[in-house]
Amino acid sequence: MSELLEQLAQRQAPLERILMVCLGNICRSPSAEGVLRAALTRHGLEQVVTVDSCGTSDWHVGGQPDSRAIAHAAKRGHDISALRARQLCEQDFHDFDLILVMDDANLADTRALAARSNSGDRALIGRLLDLLPTPLPALAAGSREVPDPYTGGPDAFERVLDLIDVACEALIAALPAATTARARS
Questions:
Q1: 77 found inside a domain
Q2: DSSP string spanning 20-67?
Q3: What is the span of the domain harbouring residue 49?
Q4: Which of 11, 28, 47, 164 gives the lowest tally of CB atoms within 10 Å of its CB?
Q5: Which residues belong to the active site?
Q6: CATH code, 88
């Protein structure tokens, strides 16, 4: 079991705000936001848990997700076209309970900013694929990274959505009982 899954299993407080993070907030993290919102809705948790996304860079602030990400998400029923890119900021570490990052480089950048934010241990931080009990065969041996599809073709965007789908279902299953209890009340 990954450290992130252990932390979620031990958490007593509900998870109410989840942030998805990638580099530019135009491919992976907005896709993850859309997929997780749909999963929360399927499980009746959309009123209990809110989701947002951002990037560690400021390259695309204010812009829409990549048109290919929008198109591939739409094919699966996820409308991410209204999302706008923003950059990760110190306030995010105070505002979110769980911050899920797509790859190791952005995890390092996120943790470095968290250390400067004086937020203590408010937010759990980990890679999205740390939610999976074992690495997926489709990834390089031992990899826990959602690959960046930006320079790839249609298959790259579909692969990313496949990985995100599996991880978001794992997240729903790992939500603390306090979170799911709020949905029933």
A1: yes
A2: EEESSSSSHHHHHHHHHHHHHHHTT-TTT-EEEEEESS-TTTTPPPPH
A3: 3-176
A4: 47
A5: 22, 28, 148
A6: 3.40.50.2300
Q: What are phi and psi of 53, to 5 degrees?
A: -145, 160
HSE-CB for 146 with a 13 A CA cutoff: 36
This prediction's pTM: 0.95
pLDDT per residue, tens digit, the chain (185 aa), is 789 999 999 988 899 999 999 999 999 999 999 999 999 999 999 999 999 999 999 999 999 999 999 999 999 999 999 999 999 999 999 999 999 999 999 999 999 999 988 876 789 999 999 998 776 666 666 788 999 999 999 999 999 999 999 999 999 999 988 888 888 77
Answer yes or no: is 184 within a domain.
Answer: no
Tell me the Cα Rg of the chain: 15
- Is residue 11 within 8 A of residue 44, CB to CB? The reply is no
d(CA 44, CA 49): 10
Q: Are 61 and 23 in contact (CB under 8 A)?
A: no
Taking CA atoms, 34 is separated from 39, 94, 109, in Å, by 9, 22, 23
